Amino acid sequence: MIYDTTDEKIKGLNEETKHINVFSKASTYVMINLNTLVNKTSSHISEMMIQGSTMGIIDITKRIKEYPNADKEIIEVIR
């Protein structure tokens, strides 16, 4: 839902969205499989998800600060 809303708004500004490259997708897939190879418990998977979410929040916060002139509507959807 957030992706669709922001993608629509960005296209309305005649801008193009950036997509995750194939290498990033593949390395993420491999890391998840390696991390769950030995320990497939729900607590370990939950920990991985929390760490990933936290890293994502930190990354998006940094990127928002990199673009102080970004469209305020799009920023508000993300927050």
Throw out a few tags for this protein.
mainly alpha; 4 helices; 79 residues
Could you explain the architecture of this structure?
This protein has one domain (2-78). The model has no long low-confidence stretch (mean pLDDT 87). It has helices at 2-12, 22-38, 42-66, 72-78. By secondary structure, the protein is an all-alpha fold. It is elongated, with a radius of gyration of 16 Å. Helix 1 packs antiparallel against helix 4. The chain has 4 helices and no strands.
Helix content estimate: over 70%
The best one-word shape is elongated
What's the number of domains? 1
Structural class computed from helices and strand pairing: mainly alpha
List the helices and strands in order.
HHHH
Radius of gyration: 16 Å
Residues in β-strands, percent: under 5%
Mean pLDDT: 87
- As residue ranges, the low-confidence spans are none
Distance from first to last alpha carbon: 13 Å
Distinct helical segment count: 4
Strands, count: 0
Largest sheet: none
Outline the secondary-structure elements:
Elements: H1 2-12, H2 22-38, H3 42-66, H4 72-78
Produce a short descriptive summary.
With 79 residues, this protein is an all-alpha fold. Helices cover 76% and strands 0% of the residues.
